[in-house]
Amino acid sequence: MLDVNAIEKRWQQYWEKNKIYRFDPKSKKKIFSIDTPPPYASAGHLHVGHALSYTQFEIIARVMRILGREVYFPPGFDDNGLPTEKYVEEKLKIDKSKIDRAKFRKLCLEESKKIEKLYAEKVFKRLGHSYDWDLLYTTISPEAQKIAQIVFLRLIKSKHCYRKEEPVIWCPHHETALAQAEVEDLKRKTKLNYVSFDIENKTKNKKDKTKNKIKIATSRPELLSSCVAIFVNPQDKRYKHLIGKKAIVPLFNYKVPIKQDEKVDPEFGTGIVMICTFGDTGDIELWKKYNLPLKISINKKGKLNNNAGKYQGLTLKEAKEKILEDLKKEKKLIKQEEIEQTVGSCWRCSTPIEFIVTKQWFIKTLSFKKQLIAQGRKIKWYPGFYRARYEDWVRNLGWDWCISRQRYYGTPIPVWYCDKCNQVILPTEKELPLDPIEHEKICPKCKKKAVPDTDVFDTWMTSSNTPEIASQWLKNPQLYKKISPMSIRPQSHDIIRTWAFYTILKSYLLFKKIPWKEVTINTFVLDPKGRGMSKSRGNAIWADDLIEKYGVDAFRYWVGSASLGSDIPFKEQELVAGKKFLTKIWNASRFVFMHLKNYKLRKPKKLEAIDSWILYKLSDTLENVKTFYEKYNIAEARKKAEIFFWHDFADNYLEIIKDRIYNGTPRGKKSAKYTLYICLLSILKMMAPITPFITEEIYQKYFKKSEKDKSIHISTWPKIDIKINKKIEKSGNLFIKILAKVRKEKAKAQKSLKAEIILTIDKKTQKELKPFINDLIAVTKAKEIKTGKFSIKFL
RNA sequence: GGGCCUGUGGUCUAGUGGUAUGACGUCACCCUUACAAGGUGAAGGUCGCUGGUUCGAUCCCAGUCAGGCCCACCA
């Protein structure tokens, strides 16, 4: 019987031991290189979505290999980010802020190595992934850090990277700057507070006291002490008289100017807005435009500072409550209304972001929008519409890319600053990789010890170099030259704005070229009801269990049904179908080799008609499957291969030749044997990328003796040595139709398919079916064939 | 508010200017010397809705509804 587990183990070991998937740089074949997404190796269960997307491009790797490319497929791990930090802290029960950076990084390196090894075994190898493990890379490795730092230095040199004091997006929880791409929407309910401001130089008209006050609606009263101006819309007749006057900020009692700008929406709130430094991006915009003063009230921890007077030290939340309370006391809070609000928040901790002015490093993006869009158009996207998403993102960019992070762990920013003259001191490329904390630098001008930068890079700063890291840009420039630009970048759509974008950006700024020729966007798995899977929803499905239950090949068979870039609801039924397929191909192979014991492949001089017919079909199928595979349409390729195997080959062909293979003439047997051998081997090769274990098992068990390749997975795509005879093809199809008709009649009569009959068919059909007449008699159990209108009679 | 994607028998899906593919499920029959985890058949769809182009549209165009995703706004 078919023991899937034993098969999986056996061949995984065999592949590894014999380095079946090793990349040969000397090969003359065309190279197909993959910019693998390096996963973060987690200790937990394997999510089906993750298992699917990684297996999806792994199938592509196998497809390209069997279609004759030299495949460059390096495995990688992303261990350069926050998750690693957190994992190590939790596992070793340490606090990273209380231990020095070098030591902490060493621990991270050690721990990630361990967990990655486990992950490689448990996930990649288990799923039958065909990486070349000699090419393994990790993003925390010295090599990857060196690349990130060199790129940084070169971008400074080319003036694409700069340091500036600017309002930046800030996460008060993580206490670090963030990039625009790290901000996510957070919908929440909040109160819009209507606050009364007094106007300076009150009119003496006692009848119209209302003119002495204005109402401002704000959702952020805690920033009152940062208010630097008040704006109204110039078209707004209600407030024309206010422009140029000054208002007094309640509780803090200082004056701010009232100005006008088109950006103010007269419909929102009261139509009057206060500008604080900084409540949102709109504040920043007007602050810049009108050169307003800077009055920061928030510190890096998200607490109020001394600008906030007596509210100093309070958290934003506490301050909001206290200030509202005080406003109420002074009768300055007129009303409150609940509104639905969307605020930017940190993608990791969902803390609403703030804007803080700090010195940070940036890489230019805004001045290259046009070029970046042009680069995106040189790349082929699968599916094509995802290019639009990339372009949308580029067009809407509002900030240069802030690459410095105030974190403990990551690739250090290799610079020093002179306290005295403010000069930035850079290392030479030869010194890299380095952590400036561990090195002393003297300011060349002041001869004073310079201060090391303690920040690290945004993790995307390293990840966006995967094409360089994976293809050994520094270590092996010749190899890099051969491989770059890489063939494909497989990735998910949610990181188009980060991983894809930053990689394209870097490649452009550094080399003025595209990093890869194609991007494939993987399928996204939903739960059976079509909702996204997540731990919090409790509807996550783990691949481990499924593999245990159905086997890897069955799982991969399901992966093979997914089309790039679309969503797929998970249905366990699909795995049942996969398992059925495995059983079927196993049994079919057993049957074939019952009759091919000690068979040596030799093409007979003349093939029986039905043998030719199935070989035509096969040849056609191979062509179709290849075409779909080349377009990464795995699902359609699988379907075509399967229809051939299941219906043409197993249901029809095998049934038709059974009689001949058991009772036929030696010549007839030879013809059948040849055909069986070619068909089965081709079927295995067509399916090998999707179900690598079962196909290898059958190949090794039956075909290895007579085939030269060490593994089916490094064999060549079949070529059918046959000239297509249209007439035979056509009458073969007719034969199958007649056969179906006979079967239908038998089913209708509730008779066994073995039931013997007298078959009546018309003269013309008889004539056309002449080459197949013996087969027809055998397969339909016709004891006699009469001439006339189609009918069957049971004996 | 802008952009993108999707909408096909109970479920999932292919597809094309000429009323539709396959799988799962359902039903009937057949234990056929590889396979009952099989085979042979059957039933089941006005291809989201409304208009238009066309001799003819599921496929092209416009609008509309529903679902999903991305982005912007968010005082």
Explained architecture:
The chain is α/β, with parallel strands linked by helices and 795 residues long. The strands form 9 sheets. Strands 7, 8, 9, 10, 11, 12 and 13 form a 7-stranded mixed sheet that branches. A 4-stranded antiparallel sheet has the order 6-5-14-16. Helix 9 packs across helix 13 (496-511), helix 17 (609-630) packs antiparallel against helix 18 and helix 18 (634-663) crosses helix 23 (773-780). The longest helix is centred in the last third of the chain and has 30 residues, at 634-663. The chain binds one RNA strand of 75 nucleotides through strand 8, strand 12, helix 6, strand 13 and helix 9.
What is the count of β-strands? 28
Oligomeric state, counting identical vs distinct chains: single chain
How far from one another are the termini?
38 Å
Proportion of residues in β-strands = 15-25%
Structural class: alpha/beta
Number of helices: 23
Instruction: Give the overall pLDDT as a whole number.
Output: 91
Low-confidence stretches: none
Helix residue percentage: 40-55%
Question: How would the global form be characterised?
Answer: elongated
Radius of gyration: 35 Å
Largest sheet: 7 strands, mixed
